Amino acid sequence: MKRTIEITALAMLAAGLACGTGLGARAAAAERPAAVAGDADEPGDMAAVPADAADAADAAEAGGTDDGVVADDEAEGEAAPPAAREPRVEVAFDYARQTGPGSNQFAVWIADADGKVVKTLFVTHFTAGRGGWAYRAQSLPVWVADADIAHMTEEQVDAVTRPTPPAGPVRCVWRLDDADGQPVPPGTYAVLVEASLRGENQALYRAEVDIAGPAAEMTPAPAYTGPSEAERGMVADVVVRWLPGAADGE
User: Residue 100: what pLDDT?
Assistant: First the structure.
């Protein structure tokens, strides 16, 4: 069975988080290997963690819900008819875990026409939650600067950070709201995906979405920095979809 990691921008009622996974911990454990890699105490290191321990940690961090997460409204039930779906922007990509230090960090966020961060949909826990940004300059430098994490409160960080997920497809959903949950005005917004691949090697994907326009699908090309090509498959096949839903009278 294909495993898909669902990361949504719904308000997480049980967990108070902006992001969660579509598979519950028990389902994920059935498909993951006996040991999985998680955020380690050392910057970017990979630590083998027993599957049951990883599930328990994920459940605790997600607020102790039965499945360990709160999923997208369409992830665990029947999909609503197209006309009933609310307008949204979806960001999908494939994530391949890397071994060794200084890798496996990524962030997904929305910015306005001036480059100001409107909402962060997801950022890996080491960079934001563990403060890796403060002592590893190569850890998501674009997001760190744009989001101005140095002035974010603990509550703001907790709302957008999650542990690095298992390898597999990842999907983020933006419900056209800002960091405070307020609707944003019509206009063109940038969708950004940044990945710290290894050391100074980075990838940045960017697509512009007009949320007043018709449905659209984009496959942005990555802009790479750093000399190594070895880890460029860490985040790949990024697709951004604008789905007007009921707003366009579908």
Answer: 78
User: What is the total count of domains within the chain?
Assistant: 1
User: Where is average pLDDT lowest: 14-18, 157-161, 178-182, 208-212?
Assistant: 14-18
Phi-psi region of 148 (alpha: psi -120 to 50; beta: other; left: phi over 0): left
Give the span between the Cα atoms of 184 and 176, in whole angstroms: 6
Q: Judge whether 57 and 38 are in contact, CB under 8 Å.
A: yes
Q: Report pLDDT for 117.
A: 97
- Written as six digits, the tokens of 237 are 């096949």
Show the domain range for 55.
5-248
**What span, in angstroms and rounded, lies between the C-alpha atoms of 196 and 200?**
8
Report which listed range, 23-32, 71-80, 196-205, is most confident.
196-205
The DSSP-derived string for 150-203 is: GG--HHHHHTTEEPPPPSEEEEEEE-SB-TTSPBPPSSEEEEEEEEEEETTEEE
What average pLDDT does the segment 144-169 reach?
A: 92
